[in-house]
Design goal:
6 strands, globular, alpha/beta, single chain, six-stranded parallel β-sheet, binds adenosine-5'-triphosphate, 8 helices, binds magnesium ion, Rossmann fold
């Protein structure tokens, strides 16, 4: 049975925090492949000010290009309606009905799970993996994650990965303020950002 990971995110831009956790999960859970799925129109974040999906998709491609087990999926950005994670998980479930699916999130995202559409439905066909994210260390984290798993009858693993205190918000602000972004994200992505003059205006989120 194949084992596939799904790594959802805005990837605005993608950075080493995303890549490190995906690679750690790939190895820890012995996955065959991880699909990076840039969000289309997200229900939880305002899409206003978000970089257009084409650039986010391209940056995700450049960032993952050299990894033989990383792939990029345009399912969400190809839609012009709000993208819910349940739809994406069902899409992969239908595409690979005989495989086991894992959805990868950071600490901040996993605690939001109860607010996502059809939490129980997602956990019925997909196992979640929560990876520790610096700056989001929460008291009784394990307990909270276990509670969510019990309440929604699913399986959620919690793992440690090398901790990188990197966020897309910080990278966007650094660019707008003319501060360095080198070594926070792959050089190809940095070049793509420069060439396309992305994030030059200040972000306030
Ligand atoms: P933004 O600041 O725009 O919210 P972000 O850095 O949080 O961007 P997202 O695209 O929102 O990146 O995150 C996608 C997924 O990756 C989420 O599950 C998030 O928790 C996780 N993630 C992002 N950065 C890290 C990091 N440095 N360490 C661990 N997990 C991370
Ligand atoms: Mg985020």
């Amino acid at each position: 049975m194949k084992r596939y990971g799904i790594m959802g995110g805005t990837f605005d831009p993608i950075h080493y925090g995303h890549l490190v956790i995906a690679n750690e999960v790939l190895s820890d859970f012995n996955l065959d492949k991880i699909f990076f799925v840039p969000t289309g129109i997200p229900p939880h974040k305002t899409s206003e000010g978000m970089t257009n999906p084409y650039h986010r998709y391209m940056m995700t491609q450049f960032a993952t290009m050299t990894h033989p087990s990383f792939d990029v999926c345009d399912y969400e950005i190809a839609k012009d309606t709000v993208s819910y994670t349940i739809d994406t998980i069902e899409y992969f479930h239908n595409l690979y009905p005989d495989s086991k699916l894992y959805f990868i999130t950071g600490t901040d995202a996993v605690l939001e799970l109860p607010t996502w559409k059809d939490t129980e439905g997602m956990l019925a066909i997909c196992t979640f993996i929560a990876v520790n994210r610096p700056g989001y260390v929460k008291e009784n984290l394990e307990e909270k994650i276990n509670q969510i798993a019990i309440q929604y009858h699913g399986e959620i693993y919690s793992i440690d990965a090398p901790q990188l205190k990197i966020s897309s918000t910080d990278i966007r602000n650094r660019i707008a303020e003319n501060r360095p972004i080198k070594y926070l994200l792959p050089e190809t992505v940095e070049q793509y950002i420069l060439k396309n003059k992305l994030y030059i205006r200040r972000c306030h989120d």
